[in-house]
Amino acid sequence: MARIVRCGLIQTTCDWSPKKYSLADIKKKMIAKHVKLIDQAGKKKVQVLCLQEIFYGPYFCCEQDTRWYDTAEPIPGPTTKLMQKLAKKHKMVIVVPIYETPQAGTYYNTAAVIDADGTLLGIYRKNHIPHCGPGFFEKFYFKPGNTGYPVFKTKYGTVGVYICYDRHFPDGARILGLKGAEIVFNPSATVAGLSEYLWKLEQPAHAVANQYFVGAINRVGWEEPWKFGEFYGQSYFCDPRGQMVATGPRDKDALVVADLDFDKILEVRKVWQFFRDRRPDSYGELVEQLP
């Protein structure tokens, strides 16, 4: 019997501008919006669900302003505790990307992974931090991650997480495969332009090279007041052959659902013996420091 896991991705707009609403109100509204979508996923019997990067607000890194530090919270904290209740209610694994502050003055771009019984399994902190304005001033807000590349053994399968800009680096994607990830989620905030043609190129390549499923999530729309670029949605799942299984729309909120056959991982690995034929003894130059 095939091992089918129903997986879901949530892509949304943030319709509330910080010019008109307090940051606390925006956070409250975005969480409420996602709770409704999570309930929809529950009704559709989704077993593993991932939200978009820092899901409870706009992508604030297009400006440099310390006011956004106030939207960070610890893990566990109010948002992850709420998600633990929802995970238990729906018997659903939920990957929850938030802005994390583990101690005063320290901030990370983090995803918490919650099992289907509501257990907080652990966190992944974004490792690769861009700073390439205008629009992506992330080093102002985030320390580079210090969790390495963990995988999480959930009720339904082994989950890995890569966050947004991480996807441009194949090294961590390979580590996740070596550690046994069956699906890797990449919650993102990426706009039309230079990166769009890579959106459906890089991550299917990771899926092929490492022979696992990928769930890629991108937010939607133009966020005020900055409007520095259009978040083009198109969240998708691809399989270990790099084939698209399901894709969301470009311009509206969506819950993208796909039934993924995790047995396909072994099927593909029996044909393409990439893990057998690796030569780690010859890769030392990869970790040498450039002059």
- How many DSSP H or I helices? 6
Strand order of the largest sheet: 5-4-3-2-1-14
**What's the number of domains?**
1
Q: Which superfamily, in CATH terms, is the homologous superfamily?
A: Carbon-nitrogen hydrolase
Assembly annotation: single chain
Cα shape = globular
CATH architecture: 4-Layer Sandwich
Number of strands: 14
Text of the CATH class? Alpha Beta
Contiguous uncertain segments of 5+ residues = none
Main beta-sheet strand count, sense and barrel state:
6 strands, mixed
Q: What's the rounded overall pLDDT mean?
A: 96
Strand percentage: 25-35%
Mind explaining what this structure looks like?
The chain has 291 residues and is α/β, with parallel strands linked by helices. The protein has a single domain (4-273), classed as Nitrilase/N-carbamoyl-D-aminoacid amidohydrolase. The chain contains 6 helices and 14 strands. The chain has helices spanning 23-43, 78-90, 170-178, 196-199, 202-210, 263-271; strands at residues 4-11, 48-50, 93-103, 106-114, 120-125, 151-153, 158-161, 183-188, 213-218, 220-221, 231-232, 236-238, 244-247, 254-261. The chain has a 6-stranded mixed sheet with strand order 5-4-3-2-1-14. Strands 6-7-8-9-12-13 form a 6-stranded mixed sheet, covered by helices on one side. The protein has a two-stranded antiparallel ribbon with strand order 10-11. It is globular, with a radius of gyration of 18 Å. The chain starts with a strand and ends in a 20-residue tail after the last helix. The model has no long low-confidence stretch (mean pLDDT 96).
